[in-house]
Automatic annotation (TrEMBL):
<keyword id="KW-0963">Cytoplasm</keyword>
<dbReference type="GO" id="GO:0005634">
    <property type="term" value="C:nucleus"/>
</dbReference>
<dbReference type="Pfam" id="PF01031">
    <property type="entry name" value="Dynamin_M"/>
</dbReference>
<feature type="domain" description="Dynamin-type G">
    <location>
        <begin position="47"/>
        <end position="319"/>
    </location>
</feature>
<dbReference type="GO" id="GO:0005886">
    <property type="term" value="C:plasma membrane"/>
</dbReference>
<dbReference type="InterPro" id="IPR022812">
    <property type="entry name" value="Dynamin"/>
</dbReference>
<dbReference type="GO" id="GO:0005737">
    <property type="term" value="C:cytoplasm"/>
</dbReference>
<dbReference type="GO" id="GO:0008017">
    <property type="term" value="F:microtubule binding"/>
</dbReference>
<dbReference type="InterPro" id="IPR030381">
    <property type="entry name" value="G_DYNAMIN_dom"/>
</dbReference>
<dbReference type="GO" id="GO:0016185">
    <property type="term" value="P:synaptic vesicle budding from presynaptic endocytic zone membrane"/>
</dbReference>
<dbReference type="GO" id="GO:0031623">
    <property type="term" value="P:receptor internalization"/>
</dbReference>
<comment type="similarity">
    <text>Belongs to the TRAFAC class dynamin-like GTPase superfamily. Dynamin/Fzo/YdjA family.</text>
</comment>
<keyword id="KW-0342">GTP-binding</keyword>
<dbReference type="InterPro" id="IPR045063">
    <property type="entry name" value="Dynamin_N"/>
</dbReference>
<dbReference type="GO" id="GO:0051607">
    <property type="term" value="P:defense response to virus"/>
</dbReference>
<protein>
    <recommendedName>
        <fullName>Dynamin-type G domain-containing protein</fullName>
    </recommendedName>
</protein>
<dbReference type="InterPro" id="IPR019762">
    <property type="entry name" value="Dynamin_GTPase_CS"/>
</dbReference>
Length: 456
């Protein structure tokens, strides 16, 4: 079993295991990760955004492959829009336990213990939320993985940016995806991982432009260059200029990674073997091998940098989170002061408590009704406009009611009158007309009652 304080040899051996973050989770990192995890566990995230990592990239840029390499789980991949819903991947560290996962979306919660089922469950969730076509959905899919090989971390995979809709997609699919991505990456608590293939012009990458629009100084943006094996021969120096920040400068910089491709998956190359092959690729590459010493290549270098960047980001966010929590706490305290002590749990005290509350309520009503002695506005003065409006409404219905009665009498005399004299219609007919009229008054009467209750 891997020991947290083991030497570099143990770290190198375990580094290629699933969840390469774990090998870098040392003592100075752990407290900050556990703090954010604790805040999530008590529900703080419902009111405040907590530090997280969002993976952004153009369509088929290799986003899911990067997320897969970092988290150690296989996610849906292929051509076209693969990530059709935001996927929040929660990695939870356990000691000595087994791998298990829980996926939740739209009220559905499923648990499973086979890592190979992750892709199937995610696809099922996406089809449920976004349909079986090629559309997208804003609804969040949460996949929580508990494993001894990961650390407490939250990663968010977002749909790939597309420009031209394909068959079955709405014309504004590109705008829909951009709005969805911006909703996540604009949060100051989010680190943006911009994924760009090495064989495209980075200056024209929409994902990088979007990240720059919400983070102009690049303070929380890290660019990941994928597919280095597809770089045209002779174009390697251009890639080195990008990595060194000579084309588009980013404060967090660039890292090149070589993740599993579709051919590797077809050959059943495991994630651990893919990590080893990635290291061999960069060691043997004439142009990229010097970047190993600079920690600017390999998924493991990315994990190291991203872990430290996340901790630094948490440190920066903590003062803001503290202020927000205090502000929310003061708001709740102020709200609680408006309420008196709750009802007693002892049965013998419930009756006196209820009596006391009723007497208190009656006294308040009397005070509101007292003329000239109340600090508040007189209750009769407040209610009089409501009753006047209700009286006006009833008066307006009088004419229509009389017309309905006249029509009813005429219809009765024509179709139902027997031996009785004219205009002496059956009582049940009048009763039905009155009941129908009262039924029509029920909804506006309830509205008046609510208005009175609100005033009181």
């Amino acid at each position: 079993m891997h020991r947290p304080d083991a030497g570099s040899e143990d770290e190198e051996r375990d580094g290629i295991q699933r969840g390469v973050f774990y090998s870098h989770l040392d003592r100075h990192v752990r407290p900050f990760i556990e703090l954010i995890d604790f805040l999530r566990s008590i529900g703080i995230e419902k009111d405040l955004a907590l530090p997280a990592i969002a993976v952004v990239g153009d369509q088929s840029s290799g986003k899911s492959s990067v997320l897969e390499a970092l988290s150690g789980v296989a996610l849906p991949r292929g051509s076209g829009i693969v990530t059709r819903c935001p996927l929040e991947l929660k990695l939870r560290k356990c000691f000595g336990g087994k791998w298990k996962a829980k996926i939740s979306y739209q009220g559905v919660v499923e648990t499973f213990e086979d890592p190979s089922l992750v892709e199937i469950h995610v696809k099922t969730a996406q089809n449920t939320l976004a349909g079986d076509g090629v559309g997208i959905c804003d609804d969040l899919i949460t996949l929580e993985i508990t494993s001894p090989d990961v650390c407490d971390l939250t990663l968010i995979d977002l749909p790939g940016i597309t420009r031209v809709p394909v068959t079955g997609q709405p014309e504004d699919i590109g705008d829909q995806i951009r709005r969805l991505i911006l909703k996540f990456i604009k949060k100051q608590e989010t680190i943006n991982l911009v994924v760009v293939p090495c064989n495209v012009d980075i200056a024209t990458t929409e994902a990088l432009r979007m990240a720059q629009s919400v983070d102009p100084e690049g303070a929380r943006t890290l660019a990941i260059l994928t597919k280095p094996d597809l770089v045209d021969k002779g174009a390697e120096p251009d890639i080195l200029k990008i990595v060194n920040g000579q084309v588009v400068h980013l404060n967090k910089g660039y890292i090149i990674v070589k993740c599993r491709g579709q051919n590797d998956i077809n050959q059943k190359i495991s994630l651990a073997d893919a990590t080893r092959l990635e290291m061999e690729f960069f060691k043997n590459h004439h142009h990229f091998s010097p970047l190993l010493e600079q920690n600017k290549v390999t998924t493991q270098c990315l994990a190291t940098k991203l872990t430290q960047d996340l901790v630094d980001h948490i440190k920066t966010s903590l003062p803001y989170l503290t202020d927000q929590i205090r502000e929310h706490l003061e708001t709740v305290k102020t709200e609680l002061k408006k309420y008196s002590t709750g009802p007693p749990l002892e049965r013998k005290k419930m009756g006196p408590y209820l009596t006391e509350r009723l007497i208190d309520f009656i006294e308040k009503i009397h005070e509101l009704c007292r003329i000239g002695n109340s600090s508040e506005k007189n209750l009769h003065t407040c209610l009089r406009p409501v009753f006047q409006q209700w009286d006006s409404y009833l008066s307006n219905t009088k004419g229509s009611f009389l017309n309905k009665v006249a029509a009813m009498i005429k219809n009765y005399d024509k179709e139902h009158r027997g031996r009785e004299l004219m205009t002496f219609s059956d009582y049940c007919v009048y009763e039905h007309a009155v009941q129908k009229h009262i039924l029509g008054l029920q909804e506006p009467a309830l509205d008046v009652l609510k208005a009175i209750g609100g005033i009181i």
